Amino acid sequence: MYPSFLKVITLDNCESTNTYLKSQYQILKEFSPVLVTSNQQTAGRGRDTRTWVSSRGKGLYSTFGFRLNSTDNVHLLPLTVGISVIKTLHTLCDITGTLKWPNDILFNRKKLAGILIENIFSQNEIFCIAGIGINLNHTTLDFPPHLEHKAISLKMITGRERDYRADEFNPTLAEIIFQWIEKMKIDSDQIIDIANHYVRFMISESITFHQSTTQEMMKGIFKGIHRSGGAVIELENGDSTIYYSGEIV
Question: What pTM was computed for the model?
């Protein structure tokens, strides 16, 4: 069952659950917290204008909207939601995912889930929009060619014969997300410690980093997540720099 405090909107089809929630923000903020979930998305979105494969019956497409009354820990939202997704997958499927900073959930280094955080700032509060996509029932052929060796689904991992359903996941996901958001508000160090546990498979690896602000591609060594939530990368010249936006390619 869903938490009693959560308003749930279930759609059969929409452009994207993030887009829907943003377009209805003025109305839905009065019902906060709210979950918008859809059976299909016609224009699912990832980060940096990427599309998210959103075929009917293949995945979970959900967006949570909620208020924060302080900007203190808003930068930790991608990590907090990522931790929540990993905990949900472990609770319901007994699989252990890993975190690719800042917002991808991996299994065996293949993308299983993604997160898209968008915030609306007003004078007195922040309305947070946290979109989550989980690959439930995809086969390799369901992914576009450039992703077929980089993405994975729960069904591919577990081999379960019957399809997974989003409504199996959303109630537990909602409970866990709001538990961890409350923890984020009072103990940011705990969020960083757990996030570093989930990224440990990447620490000390050579990586290529795409910096969002300058569009620059850099090579370096991933050193973990800083207490402020940024990625610590040791560049080729030996300098360690903290980045708050960008992507490990």
Answer: 0.93
List, in order, residues 6 or more apart from 241 with CB less than 8 Å away: 232, 233, 235
**How far, in Å, CA of 80 to CA of 84, rounded?**
6
Check whether the bond before 171 is cis (ω within 30° of 0). no
Distance CA 209, CA 92 (A): 33
* Domain membership of residue 244 as a residue range: 206-248
Residue in this structure with the two tokens 């923000």, named with its chain if needed: 25
> Does one domain contain both 131 and 229?
no
User: Could you tell me if residue 1 is inside a domain?
Assistant: no
Structure confidence by residue, pLDDT tens digits, 44-66: 666 555 665 677 889 999 999 99
For residue 88, give the amino acid letter.
T
CA-wise closest residue to 218 among 175, 196, 194, 249: 249
